[in-house]
Amino acid sequence: MSDLILPDYRVQTDAVRNRFARIKKRPVTMEVKGVSKYFSSKHGTITALKDINLTIHKREFVCVIGPSGCGKSTLIRIMAGLEQASEGEVRLDGKAVDKPGPERGMVFQGYTLFPWLSVKQNIMFGLRESGYNKGSAEAEARQWIELIGLSRFENSYPHQLSGGMKQRVAIARALANKPKVLLMDEPFGALDAQTRSKMQSHLMEIWKNIDVTVFFITHDLDEAIYLADRILVLKSNPGEVQEIIEVPIPQPRHPDQFLTAEFLATKKHLEQLIHPANQDDDEDHLNLIRMVPVNDDVGSVF
Amino acid sequence: MSLFSVNKPLNPRSRKTVTICSFILPILLWCVVSYVPFIWHPMVEITQPGSVSYFRENMLVDKVLFKTESINAAEKGTELPAGIPANPVYLPAPHEVVKAFYASFTTPPTRSSELWLHESLWSSLQVIFYGFLLSSIIGIPLGILAGTYDFFSRLFEPFIEFFRYLPAPAFGALAVAILGIYQAPKIAIIFIGTFFQQVLIVANTTRKLDPALLEAGQTLGAGNRSMLFRIVLPGILPDLYRDTRILLGWAWTYLIVAELIGTSSGITWFITQQARYKNFDNVFAAIIIIGILGLTIDLLLAWLGRRFFPWQNTN
């Protein structure tokens, strides 16, 4: 990678620049204003998040990456209303968020399907809560099941499904409530590489066709670049915004773009942000490994 | 050795065999102790009293005593007593218990005021049923409330935590004073024995429900009421059912105490009565009946549980 001559990640083609201009003209869906979060522990106060500011426009796809412990999960939980910010506030369509609600659908890494409900009943759950009668909720759920391609499994229980299928049901369950924002906390983190890339295309397809804004946490750089319009990069201790990157890759996205110059340029920049070049700790360990005696017929693997 | 691999299930055939062995082995041990004369048998059953004045036929005497009397008789040159090795009266042989098992259902009670065995059993089952039902009707909702809302947890649990250390049998006299001498105080003892444990265990089970499910429910728009009835309750149901099965076992233990309070009745009355007459074969038969009843009810509940909760993929 280091030998390649890559453009600067900030260089955008006209098409991409125009698209961002159009996005910025759209109404603001969600606003994070000066959000900080402190946890008090025996050893004093820990600052999990410090003064986070972010404006998300309608139907934008925003990814968040950052090293573990940078507070990305705390941020999404505050946006969902599952936790309260110590300072600042989150606004949805101008109204402050104070508790969880169906207009902010959430998809968790651990699927969190209700194990006692079938696929269909899981998707019907939110619909029934929002006052649909049984018949119309069922009809609506069927449509979602068809959309996620699980018609054969509508009466199966979650334990009978694979991880990818479960997460598709979880996404459909959240989207059935017609949320304004879909919050996704490392939703594909537990899936194998192949299923994950299928799920990514699947999610893109849904996002293209449904009026929803997506806020997506991941630790996978490729995933972030492939999916996002903009990437929010957090750093840890304390969790602060390091940079907000406009991804210079034209939409609609396609897996071929993984090897384009813009993609690699963005990835290189993200790598530098997430893994800065001081690897002294690792050097020590590698030196120790060299001291381990090797009794092997093959002298060197190189 | 495939029979001893850590954390690996046995193949179905060995599993069945081992399960059967779990019953066969204790029975086999019992048979060996009962039927092999040189194992244990510390007594001698007299078949021929001989010249020993206080020996009677079918009398059980200590082995040592029998030996001394035989030596005495031999020295005096009088007729020798004869006998066969026997176990004490409190360890009847399997075949005697089997006979007693059959006979206990077919022989009428010695006095007309007394109950048949099956009537005693029925009375015991009723005491357990009502005691346990009453405890569950109050205890399960309280436990779920305490497990769901911190408010109720603080309100109920400290006192219950204290109360559960008070032994249920200690309330026997009080229960009789308040509730009379018949079934009511017995039901009360079963209630006291199970209720306090039940609240705490159910509260704990409720607290163990995956909090992510509650959060998922909240983000799907579930209100307080829905959270309780559409998530907490169905979410804990299989564990609640399992808890109830375990607690039912406890209720059986308290039954024995409960039935000694006020007028003796039920299976415990039968057992104490038979022990008083030294009919230990009947005592064993009755104990085995309790075991069989308990196991049958538990297996039935386990089987029903699998039908009730098809979403659980555990076997």
UniProtKB/TrEMBL annotation, chain A:
Keyword annotations: ATP-binding, Hydrolase, Nucleotide-binding, Transport
Top-rank taxon: Bacteria
GO terms (BP aspect): quaternary ammonium group transport
Residue span(s) of domain ABC transporter: 30-261
Pfam families per record: ABC_tran (PF00005)
InterPro entries, per database record: AAA+_ATPase (IPR003593), ABC_transporter-like_ATP-bd (IPR003439), ABC_transporter-like_CS (IPR017871), ABC_transporter_ATP-bind (IPR050166), P-loop_NTPase (IPR027417)
SMART domains: AAA
UniProt-recorded Gene Ontology molecular function terms: ATP binding; ATP hydrolysis activity
UniProt-listed Enzyme Commission number(s): 3.6.3.-
SUPFAM superfamilies, sorted: P-loop containing nucleoside triphosphate hydrolases
Enzyme class, broadest EC rank: hydrolase
Family, as annotated: Belongs to the ABC transporter superfamily.
PANTHER family: ALIPHATIC SULFONATES IMPORT ATP-BINDING PROTEIN SSUB (PTHR42788:SF13), TAURINE IMPORT ATP-BINDING PROTEIN-RELATED (PTHR42788)
Name of the protein in its database record: Bicarbonate transport ATP-binding protein CmpD
Gene designation per UniProt: cmpD_2
Automatic annotation (TrEMBL), chain B:
Keywords on record: Cell membrane, Membrane, Transmembrane, Transmembrane helix, Transport
Localization annotation: Cell membrane
Topology versus the membrane: Multi-pass membrane protein
Lineage, uppermost ranks: Bacteria, Pseudomonadati, Pseudomonadota, Gammaproteobacteria, Thiotrichales
Pfam family, one: BPD_transp_1
PROSITE patterns registered for this protein in UniProt: ABC_TM1
The name this protein goes by in its record: Putative aliphatic sulfonates transport permease protein SsuC
Species the sequence originates in: Methylophaga muralis
One GO location term (cellular component): plasma membrane
Top-level taxonomic group: Bacteria
InterPro entries: MetI-like, MetI-like_sf
Keyword Zinc appears in the UniProt entry: no
PANTHER family, per the entry: ABC TRANSPORTER PERMEASE PROTEIN MJ0413-RELATED, ALKANE SULFONATE ABC TRANSPORTER-RELATED, MEMBRANE SUBUNIT
Family, as annotated: Belongs to the binding-protein-dependent transport system permease family.
Gene3D superfamilies named among the record's database cross-references: MetI-like (1.10.3720.10)
Annotated transmembrane regions: 20-40, 127-150, 162-181, 247-271, 283-304
ABC transmembrane type-1 domain sequence ranges: 121-301
BP GO terms, sorted: transmembrane transport
